[in-house]
Structures are given as C-alpha cells and as structure tokens.
Amino acid sequence: MLRLAQNYKYFFLVSAVLSLASITFLALWGLKLGIDFRGGTLLEVRFENQVQAGRLEGALREINAGEFLVQSTENGGFLVKIAALAPGALQELKQSLADSLGDFSEERSESVGPIIGKELLKRAYLQVVLVAAAIILYIAYAFRRVAKSSKNNALSSWKLGTATVIALIHDLLITLGVFALLGRFFGVEVDSLFVTALLTILGFSVHDTIVVFDRIRENLQNHPHKEFSALVNYSVNQTLSRSINTSSTLVFVLLAMMLFGGSSTFFFIGAILVGVISGTYSSIFIASPILILWQSKK
Amino acid sequence: MARLAGIILLAAFAALVVFDSLGFAGLDKKFPYRLGLDLSGGAHLVYEGDLSNIPDDDKKDAMSSVRDVIERRVNAFGVAEPIVQLSGERRMIVELAGIGNIDDAINEIGLTPFLEFRVEDPDLPPEDEAAAPANPQFIPSGLSGQHLRKADIVFDPQSNQPQITLDFTSEGRDRFAEITRGNVGRVVAIFLDGEVISAPVVQQEIKSGQAVISGNFTVEDAKTLARRLNAGALPVPIQLIQQQTVGPSLGVSSIEKSFTAGIIGLAAVGIFMLIHYRGRGVVAVLALLVYAILNLAIFKLIPVTLTLAGIAGFILSIGMAVDANILIFERITEEKRAGKSPAKSFREGFARAWAAIRDSNFSSLLTVFILGYFGTSLIKGFAVTLGIGIVLSMFTAITVSKTFMELTLIRRRPE
C-alpha cells in the first residue's frame, strides 16, 4: 500500500528534479523546430544512378541553394534539408538536380513558407492553452457536487481542476524537456505531429487524473467523516491496479507502434510514450498529494 | 438475449462492410477506405492569393474565381480526383492524389496567367505632362481574369501583325463599358502577371465586351498566350506557400507498417488481458474485436479520410477502449472482495465504473473537439479517428462488454 501523506515529499522531489531539468534544457537549448514551424524545404529522393552524398552536396552548392543538410536514408536515398528555400522554388530545384545528377524518384517533400510556420506555431500555443482552460472548466463542472458532500472540510471542485492542470503541466514539461535533450544531442526536430502528441498527452494525463478523482469523490460521499488525507490515500490505492494495468497496455501498444510503425511516426509515438508514463506517475504521485496538502493547510 | 442478437447482427454487418463481402446480399456496393495523401501518395499544395488591391466586397468573389480557374486547369491535366478548395479568406488548398504527372500539374498551376486591367490613377496626376504617358500611375480597375470568357488570335488587317482579342463575360462587358466610358482619352493598361503588355489610349466607350491586345507578338507567342488565357486567367496573383508530396512507395510502406504495428499492438493487449484477467479477459478480447470491426466499418461508411496521424488516433483509442474494460473488471473484483454476490458485484461494479469512464472520456472528447476545430488538417485527421474511437469505446463498454459479462453470469448461476 502506498503512503502518500507520509511520502509525498520524495515523490515531489523526483518530479521537481525532472521538471527543473526540463526547464533548464528548454532555457539552454530550446526545442529544435522542424520546417513546418521554421519554414524551409525538405526533400527525400532516390537517384536512379549511383550518386555519392558528396556529388549531391556539390550540385546543391552549384545551384546556390543556400544553407543545406544532406543525410543518407536507410533505403539508399538522401534526405535534403534546405533552410531558406521557399515553396515556389522547389520545382526548379528538382529540375536542376535531375539535370546535373540524373533522374530520381521523389519519396517525399515538404516545403513551408515562413508565414505559415509562424501561424502554425501560434495556433499550437493557442490549442494547448484552450485545452487546458476547457479542462479546468469541465472538471469544475463534473465534480461540482464534491463540495457539498465533504462535510468536514469543503473541497472546492476548482481545486480538483487546478490540481489536474498542475499534473498536466508537469507531464508536458517533462515531454518537452526530453525533446529539448533529444534535439540538442540527436538533432530530433519537433513538428506538427509533435504538437498532436502533446495534446494527446494532455488528454491522457487528464483522463488518468479524473479516474483517481472520481474515486475520491465517491469515497467522500460514502465516508463523509473519514480524515481527508487517509481518504485520498485509500482512493489512490483502490485505483492503483487499474492505473498500472491501463498504462501497461498503452505502453505495449505504443512500443509496438514505435518498433514496427516506421520512422515517420517514431518520435511522435515516442513523445506520447513519455507522456503516458509521466501522466500515470503524476496522477498518483502529484495530483492527489496536492489535494491532501491543500486541504490540510486550511 | 435480444441485446446479444442485436450486437451479433451489428458486428456481422460491420464485418461484411470491412471485408467487402456485401455481394451475397445482392448489394454489390463496396466501401473502400479513403486514404489521405500521406498514405496513397500525392501532393498537398497551399496557395495564398494577394488580395491587397481588391476591395473587401470583391475578395470572396476573386478567390472563388481563383478556385474555379485552378480547378479547371487541374482537371484538364488528368490527375485522378483532384481536390481544390478554399480555406480561410485568402488560401486555396490543392490536393493531387495518386501517381504520375504531379510535377507537371504543379508547374501547370504555376503557369496560370494573372490578367488585370488597370486605369490611370485620377488622384495622382503626373506632374510632368511630357513624361506622363511613359510613366503613369495605374490602379486596379476591377476588371480582371475572372471576367474573361475567351481569347482568340486575329491578324491586324493593315500590318498583318498577330493580335489577341479578349471576349468578356456579361459582367465583364458591363465593367469594361463603364471603364472605357470613364477614361476616354486616357490609358487603360493590360497587365499580365504583373507586367504591362499593352497600354492603349481609350478612344471611345466600348460596349461590345471585346478588347484587343496588340503587343509586338510573334505568331508563336500569340498562340501560347491565347492558349494560356483560354485555360483560365486569375483575377489576383497567387503564391505557393506550402507544398507537401509523398511518393507512392513511401505511402504503401507506411500503410504496411502501421497495419503491422496495429496488429502487434492489439495482440499484445489481448495476451495481457488473457493472462491477467483469464476468463474475463476473453470477454475483453471479444469486446475489443467487435470494437475494432465497428470502428473500421465506420471509417469505410462515412468515409473517414485515413492518414498516418489518423491511424495513430485509432490505435490510441484502442487504449481508451481497453481502459474501459479494465476499469469495469477492477471494480467488479473490488465489489466481490467486499463480500457481495457475483450478480450484485457485477451490477454495482459496472455502475460505479461507468461514472469514471464517462467523466474521463468526456474530457478526452473535449480535447478532441478543440483539436478538430482549431487544428490543421493533420491534427484534424487525428482528432476525428480518436473522437470516433472514444464514442465507440463508450458504446461497446455499455453494450458489448456488459452483455458478454451478463452471459458469463448466467452460465455460472447454477453453481
């Protein structure tokens, strides 16, 4: 049996260290933005003739493509990233590459103008803020009867909402920190899919916290005179096997998707995986102890 | 029992849809999956119209005319099922699916001429009368590519030079008459792709709805220009601001990989449920199968456009569906531990688990709704499949899982 009221300091310490590390990484290195946010062009090609990376780089310099990066891909092709190439110029670039190096098949390409990138980034922030606000409101509404049922000490449903959002910010921070680290040392970029992953984490984190709070609500109704911290502790332990089982099945699914789902969604699924693990931890070890602390202060 | 029959019928129907086996029922209709460009291969292009010179009232008109012109061009190019749609006030999205000719089609869109008639700016009279004709200030006249009906080549009977005649639509004819009436003795310039190609001085009002471009064309140039104009001319310049293409082979390998990942993920969940929950695990696995088949059938029937992000949303929703079953099972176990009879612990366990399932899924639906409303098309694809999955998971939890569990109770009752 977990003893939250006694041990919460250790749990908070773990989270505080991880969150601070994440904030430090973000402040030091930031996230490495993908071309959807930064603007630029990405082109994955496979040449019909044998072409060395050096020749491709030479050809790109000759065209004056500006700052670029050439990477070999697993299937013998190349991934070319060009920072300043506008979408309109992509067709021309492909033509000149074909002229100097021979025909190639285009596996994929993506070209984003700088205006769109800024817009997408703005929209991504907006979405995260909106979802967080909507969740506080929803929880305050869904748990509105809690306040009446706890006779010894009024537990406002706004506190539940706020605790949920603290847990959620914790999960987002850690995921962002992991990607700041990955970006710094492995060049992993964040793109629109990453924002989708963040929003999914948001949803899952809340999903998990609600399941625990739901049990607290029920126990408050059935045992109105029990001491609050014991009651929260009891509720968390009751939902513990569900939390662990659900998270493990999700982790199975996500691992399968990471290992077999191909490279295009690898980091997308990876981000969700980090968030799911953090979300399970925070609903048990962060959100619930916060309630205990909050109630005991008054 | 009626509920069980209903579930079996529903699942059977869904299975027929999923496996394209409606043929035996005399319904030869097939419902294929609709694949997004990242899976089928194709190009996603976003253009932005420059509306800075267009009065507010005409903006909508100008953009829909842009759409019509581009749609005609793309259709003529023989790309299968192109999608051309406006997005927001100034944007146009062009989606070209499948293989072949995509590069050519993109180039062709880029060649669409932007035709505009401009008049001298009455507020800015040229200061130096002598220099005026060489460098007058022009402003848009409201007559542009969208009013063009047809372009033809004719030869000037005197000089034998090729000229191009422009035939206007009825609205264009009225506007042209108005413009010429108000500008007798002044220059009306014809701009093509932002450059003056002809700047005649208006002699008198022209009511016929015909204008002549008499640049110094070679016959070849004139022919090319007439062909370009006849394929449609734009009322405003457009600029490609985003382009995404996926080759067909990458799409196919993405489908295969997500399919494998989905099957392996499902199998892993099934094995976990069977080991951990034994007999009830069978119920969960059956419920999950019904859930997956219903979901796929809905994807086909609506149809939902499936993308990589969309498939991720679907697989994630499987996680939510499993969670519903786990919540129910754990709760029933607890009630039993409290010493209640199997039937009672089932009833109460189910009812209590439902509150948690409902509240947690509603908050997820809220997230999905915001994503679907404010998201980009990629995020929308994810939101749609996740949303359908969440609603279905609640549905299968209260119908399928519940009914199957009741069955196991009936069987046990004689013990």
Helices and strands, with pairings:
The complex is a heterodimer of chains A (298) and B (415).
Chain A: H1 4-28, H2 35-38, E1 40-47, H3 53-63, E2 68-72, E3 78-82, H4 90-101, E4 104-112, H5 114-142, H6 146-149, H7 157-186, H8 192-222, H9 228-260, H10 266-297
Antiparallel strand pairs in A: 1-3, 1-4, 2-3
Chain B: H1 2-18, E1 34-35, H2 37-40, E2 42-49, H3 56-76, E3 83-87, E4 91-97, H4 102-110, E5 115-120, E6 138-144, E7 148-155, E8 162-168, H5 170-182, E9 188-192, E10 195-198, E11 210-213, H6 219-230, E12 238-246, H7 248-301, E13 305-306, H8 308-337, H9 342-374, H10 377-412
Parallel strand pairs in B: 1-13
Antiparallel strand pairs in B: 2-4, 2-12, 3-4, 5-6, 5-9, 7-8, 8-11, 9-10
Helix pairs in contact in B: 1-7, 7-8, 7-10, 8-9, 8-10, 9-10
What can you tell me about this protein's structure?
- The complex is a heterodimer of chains A (298) and B (415).
- Chain A is α+β, with helices and mostly antiparallel strands.
- Chain A has two domains: 4-35 and 115-297, Up-down Bundle (Multidrug efflux transporter AcrB transmembrane fold), CATH 1.20.1640; 40-112, Alpha-Beta Plaits, CATH 3.30.70.
- Chain A is built from ten helices and four strands.
- Chain A has helices at residues 4-28, 35-38, 53-63, 90-101, 114-142, 146-149, 157-186, 192-222, 228-260, 266-297; strands spanning 40-47, 68-72, 78-82, 104-112.
- Chain A is elongated and about 80 Å long.
- Chain A starts with a helix and ends with a helix.
- Chain B is α+β, with helices and mostly antiparallel strands and 415 residues long.
- Chain B has three domains: 2-36 and 247-412, Multidrug efflux transporter AcrB transmembrane domain (Multidrug efflux transporter AcrB transmembrane fold), CATH 1.20.1640; 42-112 and 238-244, Alpha-Beta Plaits; 115-230, 2-Layer Sandwich (Gyrase A, domain 2).
- Chain B contains ten helices and 13 strands.
- A four-stranded antiparallel sheet of chain B has the order 3-4-2-12.
- In chain B, strand 9 (188-192) and strand 10 form a beta hairpin.
- In chain B, helix 1 (2-18) packs antiparallel against helix 7, helix 7 (248-301) packs across helix 10 (377-412) and helix 8 runs parallel beside helix 10.
- The longest helix of chain B has 54 residues, at 248-301.
- Chain B is elongated, with a radius of gyration of 32 Å.
- The chains are: A alpha+beta (298), B alpha+beta (415).
- Chains A and B meet through helix 4, strand 4, helix 5, helix 8 and helix 9 of A and helix 4, strand 12, helix 7, helix 8 and helix 9 of B.
- Strand 4 (104-112) of chain A pairs antiparallel with strand 12 (238-246) of chain B.
